[in-house]
Amino acid sequence: MTAESVESVPLIPHSVLFGNPSHLLPRISPDGTRLLFLAPDDGVMNVWTAPVDRPDEATVLTRDRGRGIRTYGLCHDDRTLFHLRDENGDESWRLYLLDLVTGEERCATPFEGVQARVLAHNRWHPTTMLIGLNKDRPDLHDVYRLDLVTARLTKVAENPGYLSWIVDTDLRVRGGSAMKPDGGAALYLDPPDGPDGAEPWLDVPYEDVMGTRVLGFARDGATCYLLSSIGANSSRLFAVDLATGRRTVLAEDPVHDVKQVEPDPLRHTPQAVLFAKDRDTWVYLDEEFGKDLGRIRGELALQGIDGEVYVDRGDRSDRLWTVSVVTGAGPVLYYLHDRADGRLRYLFSHQPELERYRLARMEPFAFTARDGVAVHGYVTWPPGAERRNLPAVVNVHGGPWARHTFAFDEEAQLLANRGYACVQVNYRGSTGYGKRFRNLGAKQWGAAMHTDLLDAVDHLVADGGIDASRVAIMGCSYGGYAALVGAAFTPSVFTCAIALCAPSNLLTMLAAGAPYRTPLRAFMTANVGDPETERDMLWARSPLSRVDDIAVPVLVAQGANDVRVPREEAEQIVAALAAKGLPHEYLLFPDEGHGLARPGNRETYYAAVERFLAEHLA
After folding, report:
1. CA proximity to 289, closest of 266, 307, 257
2. What is the pTM of this model?
3. Which of 586, 394, 381, 412 is nearest to 474 (CA)?
4. Active site residues
5. In the predicted model, what is the mean pLDDT of the chain?
6. Are 45 and 68 in contact (CB under 8 A)?
7. Pairing, β 496-500 against β 466-476
8. Is the pLDDT of residue 218 over 90?
9. At 192, is the pLDDT very low, low, confident or very high (cuts 50, 70, 90)?
10. ω before 400 within 30° of 0 (cis)?
11. Which residues contact 434 (CB under 8 A, 6 or more apart)?
12. Measured by CB atoms within 10 angstroms of the end CB, which terminus of the chain is less buried, N or C?
């Protein structure tokens, strides 16, 4: 702990924060009889099951011994479990099916170097799944029908250039979304020949492309639901009558985009809409759903629990829900809610060991950037420390088309527990705050997106909370790029930088990546820069171009199998640092991809982060 601490706060072990969770992603089986969840088996995350009324009698279903399972589901045939696994982070996801009756597991997509995507499965087609495979063309995913009984794969639609597909509740392919050369998009519904032979159902301008998409269809097929920011600042939820084309606004906010829509499981009509502001704001379109969430919140309030509430509704009868509660200052809490009697039964938390330690809660803050733009973010303050002249770490989110939200954040907890203020800024370009704010980040990598971080530091220094002479910067993906920018462009602001899976040269980053990311190139060109016409700008915005200006220690970490930010991005900056004799460390994880999934690797990395900060910041 730092000298500013006013009381001793026990250190949280890395294994508790970054090891395997105790439980994760609980769900109810479609027939309402089983509880399923992720939990460690022999140190690896696997799928477990228990009778829904006896969660203590759990047994393990899967036997992965690699990076662990993170994505799973139970099919509506009531006997097939599916999950996805890749090879050491290479994102060549294979689809595995486990028969819960016989215990037999098989790989449904045993193709080398092919990525499987689950597109659709529902109660109305219990023995069928639609999946996307880039088996025939590495840059495009065609649609295949998978028969769960015979394991037969049948191609049902060849990709005419879609980045994503649109499928209805009868598992009919209705169209898709294709990128335009200017970075906009075209949405097609029921086109006879695809993008080359049909007029778009909706032409999406560049500025609206991240706020516009078809969510799905009502069960009767007469209505589709559209998120769109066209004609407004933020994305709104529309019901579109497919016969007349008439659009009806169902939910909107003048500043914040729709984050989530909760559909009725049977009719597939929206029941609630979530806007992620500093804290969640729900708009209820269905009175009964609102009452259910109200009862859950009331039960939690009686227990003194204040948190964000999320539900999973796998039970076909919609009687049993699993409920996740995020308090931000403790582990994620999981409950079983029985709608028949209104009971809320505690199941478990994601990491009970955390309850032994004093945790910190993310607190929202806002400031005005140097050009007058309002910017929001969160600070997690060290518990037990006076909020004055503290060392701080600017922890930059990836994407950059994402945002920090109120959550339990392991990195923020580590930093706060070790005595640092963790500053998380939703800089311009971040999502959720409407298209004007989002599009202010266009071609501002290493420019205005970076000065927003600097202005956040200045704001917190002026308030007296943090010490200007002790500020570090860290992040993963774009956040790692921002850390390298901090070290190369503004070394007088930051005492050290930590970059995980970080682009160091925008020109080589834009030229690389897995083939199936090719359809994104127009989007990347519009938002980052055009290598053909803006080469000089892209090089000037690359940390590698300013390596001679780096004057602070840098910790670089990389997954060897990263297909988004390839290993070369790390090694070219490391080589340049070594050639200049600049202080640096390099960690290469041979069995990881974009980010770190294996608990041992995560603990190794964060032990290095803690030691690095203690040496150069505290």
Report:
1. 266
2. 0.96
3. 394
4. 477, 562, 594
5. 95
6. yes
7. parallel
8. yes
9. low
10. yes
11. 211, 229, 233, 234, 254, 255, 256, 257
12. C
Q: Give the model confidence (pLDDT) of 103-159 as tens digits.
A: 999 999 999 999 999 999 999 999 999 999 999 999 999 999 999 999 999 999 999
Q: Which amino acid is at 3?
A: A
Q: How far apart are CA 134 and CA 145, in angstroms?
A: 14
In the chain, DSSP finds a helix count (H) and a strand count (E) of 11, 35
Q: What does the chain come to in residues?
A: 618
Task: List % helix, strand, coil for the chain (3-state, nearest 5).
Answer: 20, 35, 45
Ramachandran class of 181: left when φ > 0, alpha when ψ lies in -120 to 50, beta otherwise: alpha
∠143-146-224 over CA atoms, to 5°? Answer: 55
DSSP string, 373-411: -EEEEEEEPPTTB-SSSEEEEEEE-SSSS----SS--HH
215 membership: H or E segment, kind and range: strand 213-217
Angle between helices 599-616 and 410-417 (to 10 degrees): 40
> Strand, helix or coil at 599?
helix
Give the tens place of pLDDT for each residue, 533-563: 999 999 999 999 999 999 999 999 999 999 9
- Contact predicate 128/145, CB 8 Å: yes
**What average pLDDT does the segment 213-225 reach?**
96
DSSP 327-359: -SSSPPEEEEEETTTTEEEEEEES-GGGGGS--
Residue 357: phi, psi to the nearest 5? -120, 160
Q: Output the pLDDT for position 75.
A: 97
The token duo for 577 is 């640092």
Model pLDDT, residue 198? 79
- Provide the pLDDT confidence category of residue 191 given band limits of 50, 70 and 90: confident
Task: List, for residues 9-68, the tens digit of each pLDDT value.
Answer: 899 999 999 999 999 999 999 999 999 999 999 999 999 999 999 999 999 999 999 999
**CA–CA gap between residue 327 and residue 61 (Å, rounded):** 30
pLDDT beyond 70 at 223: yes
Q: Rounded to an integer, what distance in angstroms lies between the CA atom of residue 299 and that of residue 609?
A: 40
